[in-house]
Amino acid sequence: MKSGTNLESLSNQNQWKVVLVSYLNTYPIVWGLKKISSALKPNFILAPPAICTQKLLSNEAKVALVPSITYLISPLSFEILPFGIVANQEVDTVLLVGNQPLEEWKTVFLDPDSLTSVRLTKIIFQRKNLFPEFIDGIEGIRNLNNHSGALIIGNKCFELAPQFARVYDLSKMWFDLTRLPFIFALFLVHPQTDQAILKEAYQVLKTAIELGLKNLDQVVEDWIKENPQKRTIKDRKYFY
Length: 240
Prior knowledge:
By secondary structure, the protein is an alpha/beta fold.
């Protein structure tokens, strides 16, 4: 295993960069990365899921938290790190919203932020023998009629969901159909990555994730301080 000094040198050369999804559910990981030793910190940036995928595919980032479907549809042979965004029943940030039961929807507008969630939406409708028209984009979400709904993803769920009479949690719907949790995102490593960096990535992310999960009360407090204008989190429930 390389020493922390060697890892710092790699980081400074932009050889070891990680891209994380810019959503609330990754904040414990971000918090942990900020708190670990400076010698261990990789270069990390936050971006929407689709941008995370682009940066990984282009090898701009060696490691990225990307929609899980990326692993299935990409021609590249990624290494998988054993961490991700996984929901067992409710996830709260991947929702179907509308003003009538979804059985009455003729049209569903799709948030493009996560291809995984878009595919999951289509699978769930098929499982229910429902075949609405799917339209990319949610620009007109505030003007949905009684025969339309929308898939919304990420932090925007906290603002938009209360405006609708019907809210369906996509992860809970998946669990009800399969009795299985759902993996929304995975940490993947670009195939052109040195094995030493791969090992360092595993150790650094493992340390950061464990640190964040062990200090969720402080994570919540710090998030509220950094985002006073956004939704206030009262407890740790969201992060489980």
